Amino acid sequence: MNNPRPPPKSYGPASPPGPAPPPHVRGRSTATIQGQFCLVSMSVENIGDSARTLDATSQYAYDAAERKFDADSLASMYASDDNDLFLNEINPGNRVDAVLVFDVPKETSLTKLELHDSPFSGGVTVELS
Hints:
This protein is mainly beta. The protein has one domain: Immunoglobulin-like. The chain contains one helix and ten strands, in the order ββββββαββββ. The strands form four sheets. Strands 6-5-9-10 form a four-stranded antiparallel beta sheet, with no helix packed on it. A two-stranded antiparallel ribbon has the order 1-2. The protein has a two-stranded antiparallel ribbon with strand order 3-8. The longest helix is centred in the middle third of the chain and has 7 residues, at about 75-80.
């Protein structure tokens, strides 16, 4: 005996499109973006004699007007191949690849980075081309 299929459900007229979905880094939703994401890839080697923690909150970027931008810690974590990179220490002599993500105004071009091995270090300036 064949069971007849139930009639298709009616959902009414289509709704108008809602707000755009949140921005994503590697498929993961991040906090609301204010401008545009600028991703900076780097290789970091610990040349010291003790372990150091790579912390996105101690890294900064600058534009031509010398405006200082903080890295987006959550987006940086998701952008890196190793999601735990920003939580683990780097032992002496070891090298890791990292991606820092900065939320900057649209049309902004970064000119340099200020990188630190701790919040209290003097840091180093890296010019961007």
